[in-house]
Write a structure and sequence with these properties.
This protein is mainly α and 533 residues long. The protein is 39% helix and 4% strand. The protein is globular.
Length: 533
């Protein structure tokens, strides 16, 4: 549950975009309901409310909450146009971890790898990314010369801008580039190269090292550990983004994260429940609260869309029958077979690796997906739950809206990245890397029966282990690309390439296209290779 106040949904950000024009004329609006920088940033509390709007841009997608209209972006339903919902979809649906049953617009194209530059969902995430960057830029511009707590908030905003630019470099490559130095108004941003954007994000995060709050200074806010994790993520993917590996640099940042006082949660499931703000391994979440962050995207989407076909409700008021896993995920990564489930135990609670949280009732579900549009063909996933660790209702429980926070960065991922960077030649220590992996597996198995040896610590093992530990946490597409397994034919899964058995797809789809509507509006932009405008 969120502890930072993000209920400031009536913040009029459009007025702030125009604030430089107002200040140039040195006047104030007659209407007291019109917000400008002068009357929004009028107290320390107001600064924090404005900062909360930036954080809220990842969790909700409108000015009023509840999906009730006045959305931040246009061209898509407000509840579809949610940052986390679209990030999750574009990171998970094209992979071996998830598939969706719905017929909304082009949504099935993601698992099939058949998307194009006019895709509405790609355009939605692209717009969300640059909306959050714009909101952050305005806050940064208005807090540039502040000190004390407000200076720390300025660092928060700069981190969040870097966080969104990380999604831009990862998904779109060469993108339009704007900072607080670009004054509000109508202009066509220039396109920055992927390599130059990498350098910008890197320099921003290095500069923020001494400016962000200390690790765990306030739950839900970006702190130094979040900065180190984001920089480590950037370095782990540097070879993809720039052609130059930086695994040694990643280990340097990961050592700082691991030494920052976090610990592995003794119970894996508790990291994904409604009171996961209490988890000792949570480094940076996107926060949700059933009362204050009411939105049909975000965690409300993940929880409801993954439920149906007789699955336990786990704190929600009904399933939407949308997203589930495919047999390849359960079989290849967890060794789970159709015969392991029964109508009397559809959740297979005796699975050795307790990270595998599945649902399959053989009386009602079908293991092989012949029809992608039938939710009960495939394997249900029960990883996220809208109940507390002790089984009680969620904090600030609501019958529809979720209170479960989404884990963006957590310590287990730092352990996995350290081990991978070591195997890739980034330095570090073999015994340390092996110890980190086995600590995660001991939590999963409840004992040391799942431990591996040094000889088993390979890249193939780590890609599969990342699936076991981090599935449905919006990591998989990036991981598969880094390991060279996303496109092409070396690794296929059910319905990849729009063939039931799976088939090879084109390598240019390692990047999403720049949306055609932005290309048409901005003459400075060029399309990514392999796509037409």
């Amino acid at each position: 549950m969120k502890k930072i106040n993000i209920s400031f949904f009536l913040f009029i950000i459009t007025a702030l975009f125009l604030s430089s024009c107002v200040k140039d004329l040195d006047v104030e609006p007659i209407d007291p309901n019109v917000s400008t920088a002068n009357n929004v940033f009028d107290s320390p509390e107001a600064y924090k409310q404005a900062l909360a709007k930036i954080y809220a841009s990842y969790a909700v997608s409108g000015q009023t909450g509840g999906g009730g209209g006045n959305g931040d972006i246009r061209g898509i339903d407000e509840n579809f146009g949610n940052y986390l919902r679209q990030l999750w979809g574009l990171q998970e649906l094209p992979t071996d971890e998830a598939i969706i049953a719905w017929d909304d617009a082009t949504i099935k194209n993601f698992h099939w790898h058949t998307w194009a530059s006019n895709d509405v969902f790609i355009a939605a995430l692209y717009s969300r990314i640059f909306y959050s960057i714009s909101v952050a830029n305005e806050f940064i511009r208005n807090t540039a010369n502040e000190t004390g707590d407000i200076a720390v908030m300025n660092a928060d905003a700069r981190f969040l801008r870097a966080f969104s630019y990380y999604h831009a470099i990862d998904m779109f490559g060469n993108v339009p580039f704007v900072t607080e130095a670009d004054k509000p108004g109508a202009f066509s941003p220039t396109q920055i190269s992927r390599a130059d954007l990498f350098k910008y994000i890197e320099e921003e995060l290095i500069d923020l090292d001494s400016k962000l709050g200390a690790p765990r200074f306030e739950y839900g806010r970006a702190d130094q550990a979040a900065g180190w994790m984001l920089l480590a993520k950037l370095y782990m993917n540097a070879e993809v983004y720039t052609g130059t590996a930086k695994y040694a640099e990643a280990i340097t940042q990961l050592n700082k994260v691991i030494a920052a006082g976090y610990s592995i949660d003794p119970t894996y499931q508790n990291v994904f429940r409604a009171d996961n703000n209490n988890s000792p391994e949570m480094i940076f979440p996107i926060c949700f609260d059933g009362t204050n962050t009411q939105q049909y995207g975000g965690m409300t989407f993940i929880l409801h869309a993954s439920n149906g076909g007789g699955m336990p409700l786990n704190g929600i008021d009904g399933g939407w029958g949308g997203i589930r896993a495919i047999k390849d995920f359960a079989e290849n990564h967890f060794g789970v077979l159709e015969s392991d489930f029964s109508s009397s135990e559809p959740e297979y609670t005796t699975i050795a690796d307790k990270r595998g949280m599945f649902y399959f009732n053989p009386d009602e579900w079908v293991w092989d997906i012949a029809n992608v549009g039938t939710f009960t063909q495939g394997v249900g996933v029960t990883k996220f739950k809208n109940i507390s660790a002790d089984g009680s209702p969620a904090p600030n429980a609501h019958p529809t809206f979720a209170s479960t926070d989404f884990p963006v960065f957590r310590l287990a991922d730092a352990y996995l990245m350290y081990a991978e960077a070591f195997v890739r030649g980034g330095g570090g220590d073999e015994a340390t890397a092996l110890g980190y992996i086995n600590s995660l597996r001991q939590r999963a198995y409840g004992d040391n029966s799942g431990d591996i040896t040094a000889g088993e610590l390979t890249l193939d093992f780590l890609l599969s282990e990342r699936a076991r530990e981090l599935y449905w946490e919006a990591q998989r597409r990036t991981d598969l690309i880094r390991f060279g397994k996303f496109t092409g034919g070396d690794y296929v899964w059910e319905w990849k390439g729009n063939v039931q058995a799976g088939t090879s797809t084109e390598s240019h789809m390692d990047l999403y296209p720049i949306p055609s509507n932005d290309l048409n509006a901005n003459p400075n932009l060029k399309q990514n290779t392999g796509y037409t405008n």
